[in-house]
Design brief:
Blueprint lengths: L2 H14 L5 H15 L5 E8 L4 E8 L3 H4 L3 E2 L4 H9 L3 E3 L2 H8 L4 H10 L7 E9 L2 E10 L8 H49 L3 H13 L3 E4 L10 E6 L2 E8 L8 H40 L4 H11 L6 E9 L12 H15 L5 E5 L2 E7 L4 H14 L5 E5 L3 E2 L3 H18 L3 E3 L6 H6 L2 H12 L7 H12 L4 H8 L3 H15 L6 H21 L1
Parallel strand pairs: 13-15
Antiparallel strand pairs: 1-2, 1-6, 2-3, 4-5, 5-6, 7-9, 8-9, 10-12, 10-13, 10-14, 11-12
Helix pairs in contact: 1-2, 1-7, 2-7, 7-9, 8-9, 9-10, 11-12, 15-19, 17-18
Protein name: GAF domain-containing protein
Organism: Siminovitchia fortis
Pfam families: GAF (PF01590), GGDEF_2 (PF17853), HTH_30 (PF13556)
Length: about 525
Amino acid sequence: MNIYKTKKLLEINKMLTQSLKLEEILHRVIVAARALIDVSDVLIIYLYDKKANKLKFAKGEGVDKEQLKKVAFSPGESITGKIFIEKKSKLFTSEQEIDEYMENMTDENYRHYYEGVRRRKIRSMFCVPIINKDRCLGVVAVNNYNQNGVFTEEDMQVIKVVADQSAIAIDNANVYKNLKEKNTLLKRSIAIHNQFYQLIIEGRGIKNIISLLERMISSPVVFYTHVNERDEANAFPIRRGDDILGVLMLGRPFPSFSEMDQIAIEQASLSIALELIKDNAIYEKEIHFREQVFNQLLEGKSGSDLQHALRYVKWDEDWIVQCMILEGRDHPLWEAERLIDKERFVKSIERISSSVGLHSLIFTRAFQLIMIIPKFKQKNIKELINGIQTLWKNEKDIYYGVGRETTIHDLSISYKEALRSIGYAKLHNVQIVEYAKLGIERLLYEVDKDILDMFMNDQLQQLYNLDESFIDTLRIFIELNKNHKKTAEMLHIHSNTLYYRLKKIEEVLQIEFNNEKDWIDLVIAFRLYVASNKKDE
């Protein structure tokens, strides 16, 4: 290498270390290469785009730059892609060797490349990888289209030195660019955060948060409390830990948005989560206050205390009310660990109640939902239950216990009856139990349990000594109201066998089924027996 080129390389090294701007560095590499290589017609620098996994045109001399900007080589594609993977410089001295290395170039890339080099045939060339810390950052290609121009090993070594020097500068420029972009991103992220935070401080609500987000990302956004499975690809969850509070339904999948738009969506999601948590805390206080109002009504308050309570629920003192209690069959009506699950359920009951024209007082105790319903017409309760069943039939299995109609001053009576009705519903697995329609069970609730157990045992003591088949027979016989034929069919036994068992039961208990008093006492005692066994289970 002559003294001129050696000095030139030292100057280039100094120049490359003086800039952190990628465009300026690439320009200096092209200028230096042009000065150091005598026979080159074209110089092209390709840089690797990690996100796209492609080698793309970065700088060139003697080419149609607009056409080459459309070229994107995959690693291993054509000469550029192969040198990128091999990380070794290569000198091409024959057209045949060049054609062999370029034969796997895609048709689209070839079309743009051919136009980019102005439809000329390469006579000789060499390619040099740009390597820093064993990472290939790109490739420098030097082409000659003149029949008489042939590159030498010295030419390639000179450009290799330039490439090695430029690799460090390019890497530093990329680091600087990334830091600058991150700093810009951080500033914009803080600005976005401040805008959403201001909405929260001003109490502008979820609607305004959504409007701001739509303006930021130039795309429609809808907030839902539940996501439709068909639209899950476009749904961005609003989370509180593992609890999903709702979803933002975006115009397209989240990954398709720019990084800045993604930050805006995330900030909006966080802001909505805070709004939902705040609203839930307020609503929980509201539910608690309703319970306090109920307690006042339950205690039979009068005078100004009663008037304050009635004013809150918008009732008149002479109204008739009715209590209804809802409880889950196998699972609670809401999940305690999910922040707004209870709020969603209670609000849905409120909406249904309003839709059937009821001004109900609705609150919760433990995992029960309690409704105090002013009575205007009989169909209200049925409409209310039908509405709840329709809305929640696929998600919740609900028991309903309904107390009788009472005055506001006797509200405690209807409440106790609703409690007994829900207890009966759970015990006997009956979905809807209205206390007014209960038969003898109403009386049994009023009697001391010890007295009931004593009565039951006095009536059935001897029956316990018989085989289990006798007890089953008596149960079916009572359920079918002493129908012999249906009882035998139900038990799959001969009528003579049934006759024998029934006679045996009469003898053991010393009663006659045809005696009205004996039969009533037996039925009551046996119902107590069945209820007692269900409790034990």
